[in-house]
Write a structure and sequence with these properties.
Length: 247
């Protein structure tokens, strides 16, 4: 029986203590780990070893993590988890905009990081192993092609990140159905736990890209006490903002 090849993870962090601890936990979890302390080294290693996942610190000397992420995603669809010491939402949004699949704020639990890495890899493998071509999704002027991973609205292409695309596709597949943030985290992100603000940030970003007026959304509605619902008809409704929803 052939031995399963371990997933390759590239850890990019200029703090040797963080890098060593993270690499140790990943190694014990069965991953093959490469390490880099700066952006150019990370890009060179990524080209050589072609990792299945990159754990990428935002604050790097010379070339920051955002630029490294842009370059990585331009070269291919490798999943990226951003590691950041900053708690500001703007930094998280920037990471998501350049294509990061997830972010983890320092200080973090290495065990949680390993679980996040496993969840992102499961999601990436499920997408790449999709058995049958899915037909395009169409509603309210939106068109999503799950095979080509292209999205458009009224004939104009939408620049969606990987997770924005997945979230919108999930909502469009279930028009009129309300989803809680915990449920979306499980069904779109594949996580059983995590920072629920991840879902909130992605919904806000989607509204900014698909709504005529993000302050009065006609497509992705907030459902009081539940979460979010996609309205295929694109009709406006009066909504009551829920706690923590400032979009």
């Amino acid at each position: 029986m052939p031995t399963e090849v371990p997933a390759r993870v590239l850890v990019v962090d200029d703090d040797p203590t963080v890098s060593e601890v993270v690499a140790g936990y990943l190694g014990r979890a069965g991953f093959a780990v490469e390490r880099a302390a700066d952006g150019p080294t990370a890009l060179r290693l990524a080209a050589d070893v072609r990792p299945d996942l990159v754990l990428l610190d935002l604050m790097l000397p010379g070339m920051d993590g955002l630029e490294v992420c842009r370059t990585l995603r331009a070269a291919g669809p490798v999943p990226v988890i951003m590691l950041t010491a900053r708690g500001d939402e703007e930094d998280r949004i920037l990471g998501l905009e350049v294509g990061a699949d997830d972010y983890v704020t320092k200080p973090f639990s290495p065990r949680e990081l390993v679980l996040r890495a496993e969840a992102v890899l499961r999601r990436a493998r499920a997408l790449s192993a999709a058995p049958a071509p899915a037909p395009p999704l169409r509603a309210a002027g939106l068109v999503l092609d799950p095979v080509a991973r292209l999205a458009g609205r009224d004939g104009t292409e939408l620049a969606l990140t990987v997770r924005e695309f997945d979230l919108l596709a999930h909502l469009m597949r279930h028009p009129g159905r309300a989803f809680g943030r915990e449920q979306l985290m499980r069904e779109v992100w594949g996580w059983e736990f995590g920072d629920l603000s991840t879902v909130t940030v992605h919904v806000r970003r989607l509204r900014a890209k698909i709504e005529d007026d993000p302050a009065r959304p006609r497509l992705i509605h907030t459902v009081w006490g539940v979460g979010y619902r996609f309205d295929a008809a694109g009709t406006d409704v009066t909504r009551t903002p829920e706690a923590g929803d400032d979009a």
